[in-house]
User: Fold these one by one.
Assistant:
Number 1:
Amino acid sequence: MVKARILWVEGKRADSPSFIPGLRKKGYSIETVSTGSEALACLLDVDPDIAVLNAASMRTSGKRICRSLRSKMDGLPILVIADPQNSIAGDECANVVLELPFTIRKLLNRIVPLLPPEEENLVRAGPIRLDVERNNVRCQGREARLTPRLTSLLRTLMAHRDEVMEREHLFREVWNTEYTGDTRTLDVHISWLRQAIEEDPRNPKFLKTIRGVGYRLAV
């Protein structure tokens, strides 16, 4: 089970050992980029639970990058790894500033309180997060309420992510019926799901139509 998604910004020539392998072993999903501009470019696609900026590896205080991230995704927790000689400790642009050196245990102790509580009812697939109890979906910073049927349909697609799902199979599994003579109802529900998760429902990035067969959730 993936614990959380971290956007990790670290220069290519970091002097200190990387914490990334250790965090991945702990079950965290980490998307790494090497510049602030790369972080901004992928921010909505990654839709992280937290951003970690290794400012010490970039010979910067990280203040400008922090403020840029905050302006694009308000409410995103940000942790900065700082060089003591170039630290922004006390600045409100970051939630936490850790000055080198420190252990991975200390890093985890500061990351965990910034993360949303783990929920047994939360299903993830790529940037899509589905709360099956509250019938709520979040994708790329957008949230939407779903009907129970839409939740069931999306959960099924997420369970078979990147697989081509035949229309008849989806209809039987989500509507719990063997009658599949008219699957237009499925098409309408797919359209509603696209309204919820796609930036441009007419040109879907995630929920693809496989002509003559069915649908595929590409994450």
Number 2:
Amino acid sequence: MARYVAFLKAINVGGHVVKMDRLRQLFEAEGLANVETFIASGNVIFDAAAKNGHSLETKIAARLRKALGYDVATFLRTTTEVAAIARYQAFKEPNVKGASLFIGFLADTPGAAAQRAVRALSTKADQFHVHGHELYWLCRGRMSDSDFSYAKLEKALGLEATFRNVTTVAKIADKYAS
């Protein structure tokens, strides 16, 4: 059995409210074991015998769509992958005072043109870096002062994503990585 983290998009935002007990039940109904949630923003940790993460993502997303009545993009990573993502140093100076670091989980690795398009969006305040299936966004200052949004980054990438603060990702890695 592998231990996975599902990073879900559109859970408890935009008028959609899903109680964590209900979310755990939906994952258990998919035959997944040891299901836990981590904060109420769509982070679900579970064990699965599935070897194909992409197929499992598709099954979970279909179950959530049927049960909740709207699309919930689902991005799976093993707990080992989450630990590597949390440790990865995308920027030379990640701990800039007043800055925030966000990680966007992507379904696929963006192509070279998409990566160039995202890097071209970089400014003094916002810097972007793609590594594998993740987009790292260093926001110097408050995110509300940035010219960027998750939607704008998704458009540049040509891929759907869900974003988490690096602190959340690090806490998940610390708690669940083997």
